[in-house]
Structure formats: C-alpha cells, structure tokens
Amino acid sequence: MVFSPPSPLPFSLQPLVDHHLAQWRAAVAQDELKDPQAQSEEFIAELRHVLAGSDFVAEQLRRDPAMAGRLMRGDLLWRRLASGEMESMLAEALAEVDTEDLLAQSLRRFRQEQQVRIIWRDLTRRADTAETVRDLSEMADHCIEAAYRWLYADSCTSQGTPMSDAGDPQHMVVLGMGKLGARELNLSSDIDLIFAYPEAGETRGGRRSLSNQEFFIRVGQRLIKALDNITVDGFVFRVDMRLRPYGDSGALVFSFDALEQYYQSQGRDWERYAMIKARVVAGDQAAGAELQSMLKPFVYRRYLDFAAIEALRSLKLMIQREVQRKGLQDNVKLGSGGIREIEFIGQAFQLIHGGRERALQQRPILTVLDVLAANGYLPSAVVDELKSAYLFLRDAEHALQAIDDRQTQMLPTDPQGRARVAYMLGFDGWDSFRETLETHRGRVAKHFAGVIADPDEDQDEEPGWHAEWIPVWESGDPEQAIEQLRSGGFKDPEEAWRKIGGLLNSGRVKSMQRLGRERLDVFVPRLLGMASEQDDPDLALDRVMPLVEAVARRSAYLLLLTENPGALRELLVLCSASPWIAEQITRYPVVLDELLNAGRLYRPPETEELVDELRQQLMRIPEDDLEQQMEVLRYFRRAHVLRVAASEIAGSLPLMKVSDYLTWIAEAILQQVLQLAWREMTLRHGKPKREDGSDCEMDFVILGYGKVGGIELGHGSDLDLVFIHDGDGQAETDGPRPIDGSRFYTRLGQRIIHMLNAQTTSGALYDVDMRLRPSGDSGLLVSSLKSYARYQREEAWTWEHQALVRARVLAGCKRLSHRFHVLRAEVLGRPRDEAALRAEVTGMRQKMRDNLATKATSAGFAPSAFTEQALFDLKQDAGGIVDIEFMVQYAVLAWSCQHPELLRYTDNIRILDGLRDAGLVSGEDVQRLQEAYKAYRAAAHRLALQKQPGKVSGDQFHDFRRAVMALWQQWLPD
C-alpha cells in the first residue's frame, strides 16, 4: 500500500523534517548501514511524515541507525502483528539475559523499537486507534510478565520458593488498573499496578526462610525498578502503585485475604470506580481470576446501586472544579469534554447498573458505550457522538505524546507544535483542527452534564418546576395545601391532602432518621409536581401513595425516583393505567429498578434471551446459596411481568405476544427450578437408577396443562403442572443417604413445588395446581412414564383427554420429552365414537355452566343475557372462552386419528389453523372463532390489570357470542 499523507506538509515543518532526516542519514553513513529497503522512496516518504510528528522517532533512529532496517526487513511497519508475535519477539530479545542489568537493558531496547513501530503505524494511519492501544497494552503485558518471571526465578534461587501451608508454590498476581487494565494504553501512559499473592506462608529452599509477603515485596521492588528506572536506554514504563490499599503508606504487596478484608471494610467508592478496569496482567492467571471473583461483590453490587450516586456526583463535581481550578481547558484528557468525562459516563453506569447488567461488566470504554446503547441506557445517537469524540480525542492525545514520548495531554501553544498536531491529524491548519476538537468536546460536556445530574439542574425541565409544591409538604397548613392542590388540577384536593397529611403526620415519618427524612422532603414535592401533570392527578396520587408509605423508611427507593425523573414519570403513568401494576410495585418495590430504562421496559426479550439472562444472573450466585438463588428467580419474574404489563398498556405488545412472553418467563424459571432441585437432591441422596441399572441424568419432565400448556398465560395465572419420571422406582440412589427411586422423585417434586409456592418477603414464584395429575389429589405426586401411560390409556376420563390436548413439556429431559409426545399423540389420536364423544363433552360443559356460569346463560343461549344488567362471564358463560376451548378439544379428539397434524400444537389459535388447513372447518368459521377468542382474552387481560373480575356488561360482544353459540350448535348440539 503506497503511503499518501493526509495533507501537504506545512512549509513551517519542512526545516524540522530536513534536519531530522539529515541526522539519520549521517548516522546511517557513519555506521555504513545502507539497507536498500530503508532507502526506498516509499520508506523515505513515510519517514518524512513521521519525523514531522515525532522527535522521539528521530532520536531513536539516530541512536540506533540499524533499527529502520530491522523494522523494514520484518515488514513490521506495513502490517499488524499476528497473535503471539510480540511475545515471541520479546522472548527472543531476552533469550541471552543472565543478569538483572542485562534484563533492564534488553527490556528498554525492546520497548524503544516497539514504540517506534507503534508510533510509525499510528501517525501514518496504517493502524487505527484500536490497534495502537492494543499493541501498547500488549507490549506492557508481555514486558511485565517477562520481567516478573525472570525476577521470580532469580529470587527463588537465592531466597527459596514461597509456599502455601499446603506445600504448593506461590506466585504473585499483578493487577493492571486504569488504561492498562482496559487494554487502552496511550503512547506514553503510566501503568497503575497492584501486587497480591494468594496466601500466607514461607519460602523453602533458601539460605533462610522469608514470609511470603516479604519475598513478594522484594520481587515487587525489583520489578518496579526493572520497568521504571531511567537509564541510558530510557525506561520501559513509568509505574504507579498508589491505587493499592492505603496508597503510598500501605504495604507494597497484600495477600488475597487482606485485600478482600480491606475492600469490604474500608473500600471507598473511588476505589470501586478504579477497580472496574482491574485485570490480571502478569503472574498467576488462575489465582488472579480467583482474586477478581473475590473482589467482584465490592465492585458490582448485587442490585442496582443508588447508594453510589452521591459518591459519583461528588467525583463529578471534583472533576468539574479541577478543570476550573487548574486551568485544564486545553487538556484533551482532563479538560471539559475530554477523555476523562467520556470514561466517567461509562463507569458511572457500570457502578450503578453493573451488578445486575452483566454485559456492563466490561473494561474497554467503547464496548461499554455499545452496551449502554444496546440496552437502552443511552440513546444510540448519544453513544455515537461519545464514541466519535473518544476516538478523535485519543488520536489527538497520541499526536501530542508522539512528539517527545512524553506523558502530556496539553495542547501546544507554540506555532510549530500546533502545526505538527494539526498535520498529524490530517487538518489543513490549527484553526480547522481546533474547530473540530471543540465540536467534539462540546458534545461530550453536554452528555457529561446530564449523567447523574442533580434533578434541580435538569436542563430539560423548567428550573424549579417542583418548587411550588414544597409548601404543601413543609408548611403542614391544610388550607394552604388544599388550595395549592386545587389550583394544581386535583379534583378532590381535600382527599389528596388527607393522604399527604396522613403520611406527613404518621409515626413512621416522624421516627425517620435524618438522611431518610431529607430524602422524603426532597421527593414528595417532585411527586406532587409530576402527579399534577397527569391526566388524572387524583388517581395518580391515590395509586402511588401506598408505595411511598411502604418505602418511606427504605429511602434508597425515594432517592432512585428523585434522581431519575423519567422513572418517576413512568411510575405515575403505569400506576394510573393499572391498579394491578401499582399493587405489584408496592408489594415488591425492588422492581422500581426496571423503570430506569424505558427502552428496555417496553422491549420484551425473546425466549432465548430470557433463558440466557436468567442463567447468567444465577451464575453469579454461589451454588450453595439457595436463598439468594430463589431471590434472583423471584426478582426475575417480577421484573419481566412488569415489563410485559407495561408493554401491554402502552400497546407495544399484542395479546398473543403478551401470553407468549408470560409463558416464556414461566418456562425459563421452571427450567432453573428443576435444575436447582435436582442438584440439591442428588447432592443429598445421589442419582437414581434407570431400569437398566445406569444412572439417571435428570430423567424427569415438568408437563404444563391449561393456560401454560396452551401458551396462554395471563397476569396472575397459576400453573397447572404434572411431573413424570423415567427411573426405576425400586432401585436405590447411589449417594451418601440412599433412598429408593420412587421416594427420590416424590421428594424432587415436593421440592419443586416448595420452591414455586414458598412465600417470602419477595412473594411466591407461582401458585401451582397439581390436580390434573393421574387420579387427581388422590394420585401420586410424581408418576413414572409407564404408570402415566397406563392411566391415560385405560383409566382417564374424556375430560382428562381434553386437558391432554393442551399438555406439553415445559422443562426437563429431552429424551423423556420425546417419549411423552409420542404417548400424547397415541392417546389423543385413537379412533373415537363421535356421538359418544359429543355426549361426554357436552355433558361436562353443562356441568360447568351449572356451577360456574351466570344464571342467565347457564342453560345455553339466552337472549336475556344480552342486556347491560346481566353480566357476561368471558370465560364460563355460553358463547365465551370455554365454549371455544371445548369445541377445539372435541375436534382434536374426534378427528386427529385421521389428521395427526392437529396434534402438532397445544394452543387453540394454531389448532384452529390446523382445522382450517385440513378442510375440517371453513376458513370463515375459523376466523370467527379466533377473533372471538382473542377479543375475549384481550378483555380478560385488561380487566386483570384493572384488578376486576373477568366479567363485562351483558350488552358487549354480541356478534362474537352469537357466532360462537351458532357454531356450538353445529358441532355439539345440546
């Protein structure tokens, strides 16, 4: 690829380039090194360009004239390095090292040559920003690792090998922080390190025994010297150890236990902020992974961490004041709109949300920004601006540092320096560069100002928009408050004041601690102000006040809503729309977290995403912490049910998708509950046996009947479940407390039900109904497949075969699942006497009407039912949901012997499609039934969200009801 400079070399830089080029040529001539490749026109053209931007490269080539030839012969200036190539090059450079001085010299010469290569490729734009920072970080990793390994081996020779109490050799773990940890080093970065070792012990094999800490302190001191000391060959990396516990006054090296104890008891928020980017860069990688796992709870809190907001706001204020105080406006890193502010934006979201949003547990800032966009934390347009600014600012930083290999981010003030920077970045002059720079910085500063901003400084709100409501809360004057509420749009201001005054004068508020009361005093005026903006302020306040009363003493929730006006607005909108949602949030306020991300709130995931999300959340919990695992399951359900309800209210999720989503949530939870219960049982009792004597590998399935089987779950639906196993009921398990297979599976089923039904402060997962199992309540809790098959073939009633139409496997063994589906097809697909079948189906339906339908319609079609006074039970009355379900079930039982395709699905809509496709029912009739079924279910969903029973005025749905009744008379005449 022929090099083409981005812009003509400025006239002012030509003397500088000519001087550097002449010096290099003189050095080459003096050493009589005239490598042909290093004299080519292409090389000289690029060399002139690089010399215009880097005195450091000029000096290195002058001091080592052969360097250019070496780089050219390896084609190292024109191509990126292959994976592992830099490590091999360093190993070759250190192959003959046998003294500490030679180690230091070899590391420095290697670094200088690589630095020339990296600067060259960066300034000529043969490498993009990502490659430049990756190569610099990789060079640091390899230099640290190689130096540590050499020094460790040398120290072991003279001082003995550090050992654990168990007699295992110990290695140090080197954590890279900041830009090194994120693999984002710049051209002249410090490297921030923390040294640790696994556990206490002593050295063995030396002249005298040292404690492991003393040994590693000595190794650490030698490592810092090998990297940091400035010699005639320069330095490798400047090393900064101040991020370790207690800073410069702390020990140089800490054991894992000491680090964990420090961060748990004394760790500060800025240390959490710093630890986000920590990475094991050298030493024992396996032990380092263990250390980071130990420290992760300190960095990423299990739930959304709003306690960190004040600390982040203080840090942000410190950044802003530092810019003003130190005159850093011309600093591309620390100045307003600089690199540090972009990093702060990403890390603030990581600290607050990273405990739950595992995708945010990343180190590189560009990756973090992508996650923020993908998950709706920031608009994509904002992220695009931040990423574009970050890359521009990093390129500018590299251009500044390439000049002298000096750690600076300050823009030059001299004409030559400005010309160099502008030229390296492809601008015609300083003014055009500065204009682009200020555009990027202005965008960053705007977005930085919006992150964890004080709500009083919200630029999108009218200043003091809530201030007029402060007297209502603080004065306690009923007349003044009622008048303010009336003028604010409340239709019943007396009732509104009764609620507010009741809270104000309640014992729980009067006994609140100072911090909680301060948060409540800030929150209530905001609540009133935003409630007054709703279509029905009285309703909004009525629905939200129970939540405020419930969480008044858990003020973190008040802080969450105060800090996030958008979340408060979503809360008011959703609670106004649905008392069911209001009740759920009041009972389980932890789901308030979901309101923070409106984009995600109204974008339900697909089934694979649900399963993966729950699996990842559980992976972060220790396997033996069942209580916390159950809390994760409960939160997962509450959060996603809130999301589906919000989407349904907003109209962004149609009825069929609502039921799909609710069903997928249940399936994902059941899969994990089964795995947790199976693990618990097998740890206690061992694995049960199959009839052939082999171990069972979870030969167990959970069948779903009814709504969950038909993929038609609604809000508040219980789960109709049946458990089947395929083990040997007589053979004993192989664990420490063996029991026979029958008892094992019965206890497994009991454990699953307990996990689903158990009431905690977070509520129960699901109500479970097991009455559809063989022989109902009098039957075994868990049946073997053989006994289940025998029952279905020989003893089951017709209504149980009707229920089997909607049965499917929700979780468990795939092999057993296949065998169940074969059995289901056999049972449902047997030939039946249609007249007898009709009689049994209609007889069962009539019993249900007699017991469950409204009186006006219990006998079937009744014109008097079509009045406003006579309510219509959407489910049980004639012409309603159950009539359609019975018709579909009758059709499957009657005709699937000749049309087995009817057995493919368990939901009514697709079974009706199958009846149409098989020519058994006209397309017009199928459409009528499907439309009626969807309309009824949609109405039932709406009523559930309003906490109303599934009944409507009798003058509704006339056409649908008549159509269903007419078709009933055709299919199943009374």
Automatic annotation (TrEMBL):
Q: Which domain of life is it from?
A: Bacteria
Keywords attached to this Swiss-Prot or TrEMBL record, sorted alphabetically, are: ATP-binding, Magnesium, Multifunctional enzyme, Nucleotide-binding, Nucleotidyltransferase, Transferase
Region described as Adenylyl removase: 1-456
For this protein, the record's Pfam families field holds:
GlnD_UR_UTase, GlnE
| Record-listed E.C. numbers | 2.7.7.89, 2.7.7.42
Where is each PII-uridylyltransferase/Glutamine-synthetase adenylyltransferase domain found?
314-451, 872-947
Q: Does the keyword RNA-binding apply?
A: no
InterPro entries, alphabetized: GlnE, GlnE_rpt_dom, NT_sf, PII_UdlTrfase/GS_AdlTrfase
Tell me one GO molecular function of this protein. Answer: nucleotidyltransferase activity
Q: Where is this region: Adenylyl transferase?
A: 464-974
Which reaction(s) does its UniProt entry say it catalyses?
Answer: [glutamine synthetase]-O(4)-(5'-adenylyl)-L-tyrosine + phosphate = [glutamine synthetase]-L-tyrosine + ADP; [glutamine synthetase]-L-tyrosine + ATP = [glutamine synthetase]-O(4)-(5'-adenylyl)-L-tyrosine + diphosphate
In this chain the Glutamate-ammonia ligase adenylyltransferase repeated domain maps to 45-291, 570-820
Keyword set includes DNA-binding = no
As for what it does, the entry says: Involved in the regulation of glutamine synthetase GlnA, a key enzyme in the process to assimilate ammonia. When cellular nitrogen levels are high, the C-terminal adenylyl transferase (AT) inactivates GlnA by covalent transfer of an adenylyl group from ATP to specific tyrosine residue of GlnA, thus reducing its activity. Conversely, when nitrogen levels are low, the N-terminal adenylyl removase (AR) activates GlnA by removing the adenylyl group by phosphorolysis, increasing its activity.
Q: Which family does it belong to?
A: Belongs to the GlnE family.
Q: What is this protein called?
A: Bifunctional glutamine synthetase adenylyltransferase/adenylyl-removing enzyme
